[in-house]
Amino acid sequence: MSLARTNARKAAVQALYQWQMTGQNLNEIERQFGEEDRLKDAQKSYFKELLHEIPAQLISIDAALAEFVDRAVDAVDPVERAILRLGTYELLFRLDMPYRVAINESINLAKCFGADGSHRYVNGILDKIAQQKRTVEIQAKQQSSQ
Known about the structure:
CATH architecture: Orthogonal Bundle
Number of helices: 8
Oligomer: single chain
CATH class: Mainly Alpha
CATH superfamily: NusB-like
Distance between the termini: 25 Å
CATH topology: N-utilizing Substance Protein B Homolog, Chain A
Largest sheet: none
Number of strands: 0
Number of domains: 1
Radius of gyration: 15 Å
Helix content: over 70%
């Protein structure tokens, strides 16, 4: 797990939050983050992927979330929503990334940016999505540890 990728996720959560709250153009948000030097220690290519691909895949991401959140996705706290969307994107579209990495990174983002206890909420939802979408990977891991 690289620190540059972790920092890209942190910046992406902030950028996605900004996009969710303002509806601002993604290229403009990306430009602002670059100009403000908020990507100094981040993997810029991964930040860009997350910032552009999460909104591009929003229908699939929100459909996966809707099965497990206890309210409408748009009613979820905006910080938690940005984190859940990022984690769900990684679980659905970054199959090269182990599901535990995607979940743990999202838990850490919730601890960093979310309200008290939000990391448990994020963990519970992403774990259910992983159980549904990464079944083969989870079963293989369980068999190898027996």
